[in-house]
């Protein structure tokens, strides 16, 4: 089993780094023998905000997080202090994501065979 940690820092929209990271995380999670965790920090904490409304045909990061989390067992942690700095409460988090901490990121980093930072 290969264990990969994705650490995202960029906002959900405006750049495509978070989008591309989640595309890769989802693709990897679908492969046999792969275990994936995703940690959102900095502006990427906003990727986990529930109730996002985007223009028709535009990618939807809330949905991209929920798919791997619910169908492929991907754990998605959201930095708690980053949430606080952006006024995001736990009640506002998308399904399949959870408030997390630097301590958990540290544990996940030790757990991982590979860490990819976007």
**Strand-and-helix sequence, N→C?**
EHEHEHEHE
Roughly how many Å apart are the termini? 23 Å
Q: What is the percent of helical residues? A: 25-40%
Low-pLDDT stretches are none
Strand content: 15-25%
DSSP strand tally: 5
Q: Output the number of helix runs.
A: 4
Order of strands, widest sheet:
4-3-2-1-5
Biggest sheet descriptor = 5 strands, parallel
The helix/strand class is: alpha/beta
The whole-angstrom Rg is 13 Å
Query: Looking at the structure, what is the overall shape?
Result: globular
Mean pLDDT: 93
Notes on the protein architecture:
- This protein is an alpha/beta fold and 118 residues long.
- The protein is built from four helices and five strands; from the N terminus they run βαβαβαβαβ.
- The chain has helices spanning 17-29, 61-71, 80-85, 102-111; strands at 2-8, 34-40, 75-79, 97-100, 114-117.
- A five-stranded parallel sheet has the order 4-3-2-1-5, with helices on both faces.
- Strand 3, helix 3 and strand 4 (97-100) form a beta-alpha-beta unit.
- Helix 1 (17-29) runs parallel beside helix 2.
- The radius of gyration is 13 Å and the shape is globular.
- The mean pLDDT is 93.
In short:
With 118 residues, the protein is an alpha/beta fold. 34% of the residues lie in helices and 23% in strands.
Explain the layout of strands and helices.
Layout: E1 2-8, H1 17-29, E2 34-40, H2 61-71, E3 75-79, H3 80-85, E4 97-100, H4 102-111, E5 114-117
Parallel strand pairs: 1-2, 1-5, 2-3, 3-4
